[in-house]
């Protein structure tokens, strides 16, 4: 089977509606798909009853937290989205996102960019406001020319509009996932710019509070990286996951289902279900 266990819809920062996302994954040959929107499971309430037997969609989520003051992401796979634990987790994180959006808008106002919260909300529609929505608004009003410039000038780490987030702790997030019947997976470990020594320390701390797996493949990546992450999983007895981290069409490095399979030494996360 072709598994893609990390992607995003319009319910967070993706560009496709949940039904469009499932159709695109089906067209790509994906047979099991996890929609992992940031801090919300709303996508699963928007999907019609499944009539397509060629793909299985499993409930999932991606939570943000910090480790040693470094932002990291934890994916919860095969969760019960209607569980008390998941409802509590989503509410907590969404309130944190709301407060962050208000603080970002205030900072941008002081930089001579008024009404950015309203603009970001218009970009987000009914979904949670995030930095990409602020970036889209800044593009629309001509403050920047593209998404990259928006983050480089205003919204990226250390920039004038940067607001640190008071996310739930790593142990709390893993507890929510496991109480919801899910599997806690460390997302895209190569994206945190950690030394290998620090990555191993992160893996140890993650496992110490109940973390169970790690993404060995996140979109198209260098084969040596895949082999090294697989080796870490083997050494730590972590389950291995894989996904595209798809957000929008036109990004071939993160296209649905278009990434190499897990190395043979890995124990796939789906063997745990």
Automatic annotation (TrEMBL):
Pfam families: PHP (PF02811). SUPFAM superfamilies: PHP domain-like (SSF89550). This is PHP domain-containing protein. Residues 3-67 form the Polymerase/histidinol phosphatase N-terminal domain. PANTHER family: EXONUCLEASE, POLYMERASE_HISTIDINOL PHOSPHATASE N-TERMINAL DOMAIN-CONTAINING PROTEIN. GO terms for molecular function: 5'-3' DNA exonuclease activity; 5'-3' RNA exonuclease activity.
């Amino acid at each position: 089977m072709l598994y893609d266990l990390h992607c995003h819809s319009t319910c967070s920062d993706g560009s496709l509606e949940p039904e469009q996302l499932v159709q695109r994954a089906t067209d790509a040959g994906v047979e099991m798909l996890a929609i992992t929107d940031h801090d919300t499971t709303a996508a699963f309430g928007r999907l019609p009853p499944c009539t397509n037997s060629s793909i299985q969609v499993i409930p999932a989520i991606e939570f943000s937290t910090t480790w040693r003051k470094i932002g990291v992401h934890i994916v919860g796979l095969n969760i019960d989205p209607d569980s008390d634990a998941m409802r509590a987790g989503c509410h907590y994180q969404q309130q944190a996102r709301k407060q962050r959006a208000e603080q970002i808008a205030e900072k941008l106002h002081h930089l001579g960019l008024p009404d950015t919260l309203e603009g970001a909300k218009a970009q987000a529609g009914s979904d949670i406001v995030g930095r990409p929505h602020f970036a889209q608004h800044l593009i629309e009003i001509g403050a920047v020319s593209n998404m990259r410039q928006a983050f480089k000038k205003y919204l990226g780490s250390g920039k004038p509009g940067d607001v640190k987030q008071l996310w739930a702790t790593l142990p709390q997030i893993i507890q929510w996932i496991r109480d919801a019947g899910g599997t806690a997976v460390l997302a895209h470990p190569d994206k945190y710019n950690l030394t290998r020594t620090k990555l191993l320390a992160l893996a140890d701390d993650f496992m110490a509070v109940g973390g169970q797996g790690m993404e060995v493949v996140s979109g198209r990546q260098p084969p040596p990286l895949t082999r090294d992450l697989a080796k870490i999983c083997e050494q730590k007895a972590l389950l291995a996951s894989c996904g595209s981290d798809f957000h929008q069409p036109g990004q071939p490095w993160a296209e649905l289902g278009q990434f190499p399979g897990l190395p043979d030494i890995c124990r796939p996360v789906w063997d745990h279900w």
